[in-house]
């Protein structure tokens, strides 16, 4: 027996109406989707940027993250941003190296091209802010009292070492030297044949992070109180350059580029190696079971006043469109949140920039099982801002300083003459 025509049409009409509503909702969602253009430095860091973006898009299907080709370094990214500012082709989100943050923000501010995150933070629940960000972490992204960005990556220089070579030299892998004189003494004992005692690749490092490390650890400052003069000249600078020369003469450091140096360490040809914790995962995986890799705190001569420059970057919003600014804020909150910071630490080795990241729900179990990754957190109390130089020539200043440092390490320039040249050239460019 057939059903009346009207009865058959009723459920069909409901289904069609529901389908139409679904289609309309999907179309509306697509119409409202926001695509964020994002730029970061160092192509190798795709290993954590990509999975973080994927997790974010799962939680926010209305926001699509589109990465521009990564800049080769913070310095290269900085130059790209300055050029893009002039041509109005800025990305919506950018990860600025801390040492270039002030220079970049001051430049973008002139054209009103950077968003002040202060009001956005203030609009969030106070309990949430306090649970996720300490004042020290927030200060890393501040410029002139403004919250220009939120710290995404943070690192201080870290000591990596070959436990077997240290033991053979009479050292104790569980109690590594905590000052430079003892570190050099141990490196001299490790040095043997084609095995170097130590490597500190300051002579070709892409920025002045390692240079600031050896200055600040001694309790010294980079600039005078008024910010107009270099503060590491004279005896301080001469001793620092003499220390760097001793890495070659006493510890047998090979003056090869930093990537080759890292490969030599991985091959078991360097006893003590200084690097960013950002490559700890990579180095750990490449070493495998060749030898026992361990990490230790960076040597600090002045235990009372010694500091270390905080490398890494802060995420900025440079979008002009209100919808993109709103989406970018959600993205920045996520990348600096505990879930994303767990990905960063486990895939790279950075210090987490979120207070909750160390909880058992996130990194707690990982840190218990991976002591080498936990070491860097012992330097948080010494972490100092990594600031640039006034005058807008920070990149050029480092390139000239590095040339002199390399000359001293090769034995072509004496430490006294070297520091005099560094001070005069730096102060000339600061003006």
Automatic annotation (TrEMBL):
SUPFAM superfamilies documented for this protein: Periplasmic binding protein-like II
Cleaved signal peptide residues: 1-31
InterPro entries in the record: Bact_solute-bd_prot1, SBP, TAT_signal
Entry keyword annotation includes Signal: yes
A GO term from the CC aspect: periplasmic space
Keyword tags: Periplasm, Signal
Name the record gives this protein: Sugar ABC transporter substrate-binding protein
Similarity-based family: Belongs to the bacterial solute-binding protein 1 family.
Subcellular location: Periplasm
Gene3D superfamilies reported for this sequence: Periplasmic binding protein-like II (3.40.190.10)
């Amino acid at each position: 027996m057939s059903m009346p025509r009207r009865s058959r049409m009723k459920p069909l009409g409901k289904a069609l109406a529901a389908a139409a509503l679904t289609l309309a909702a999907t179309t509306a969602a697509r119409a409202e989707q926001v695509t964020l253009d994002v730029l970061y430095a160092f192509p190798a860091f795709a290993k954590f940027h990509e999975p973080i973006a994927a997790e974010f898009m799962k939680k926010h299907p209305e926001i699509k993250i589109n990465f521009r080709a990564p800049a080769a370094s913070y310095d290269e990214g900085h130059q790209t941003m300055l050029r893009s500012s002039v041509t109005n082709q800025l990305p919506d989100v950018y990860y600025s190296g801390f040492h270039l943050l002030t220079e970049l923000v001051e430049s973008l501010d002139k054209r009103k091209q950077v968003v002040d995150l202060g009001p956005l933070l203030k609009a969030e629940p106070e309990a949430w802010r306090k649970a996720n960000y300490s004042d020290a972490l927030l200060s890393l992204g501040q410029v002139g009292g403004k919250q220009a960005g939120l710290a995404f990556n943070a690192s201080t220089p870290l000591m990596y070492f070959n436990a077997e070579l240290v033991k053979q030299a009479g050292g104790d892998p569980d109690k590594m030297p905590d000052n430079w004189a003892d570190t050099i003494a141990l490196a001299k004992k490790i040095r043997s044949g084609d095995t170097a005692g130590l490597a500190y690749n300051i002579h070709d490092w892409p920025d002045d992070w390692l240079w600031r490390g050896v200055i600040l650890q001694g309790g010294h400052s980079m600039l005078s109180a008024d910010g107009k003069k270099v503060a590491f000249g004279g005896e301080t600078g001469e001793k620092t350059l003499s220390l760097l020369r001793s890495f070659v003469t006493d510890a047998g450091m090979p003056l090869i580029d930093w990537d080759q140096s890292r490969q030599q360490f991985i091959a078991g040809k360097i006893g003590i190696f200084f690097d960013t914790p950002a490559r700890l995962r990579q180095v750990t995986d490449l070493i495998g079971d060749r030898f026992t890799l361990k990490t230790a705190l960076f040597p600090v001569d002045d235990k009372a006043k010694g500091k270390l420059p905080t490398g890494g970057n802060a995420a900025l919003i440079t979008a002009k469109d209100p919808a993109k600014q709103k989406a970018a804020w959600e993205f920045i909150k996520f990348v600096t949140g505990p879930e994303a910071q767990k990905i960063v630490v486990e895939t790279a080795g950075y210090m987490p920039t979120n207070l909750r990241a160390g909880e058992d729900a996130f990194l707690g179990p990982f840190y218990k099982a991976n002591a080498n990754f936990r070491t860097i957190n012992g330097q948080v109390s010494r972490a100092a801002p990594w600031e640039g130089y006034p005058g807008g020539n920070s990149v050029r200043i480092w390139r000239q300083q590095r040339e002199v440092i390399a000359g001293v390490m090769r034995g072509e320039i004496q430490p006294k003459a070297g520091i005099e040249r560094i001070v005069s050239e730096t102060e000339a460019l600061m003006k």
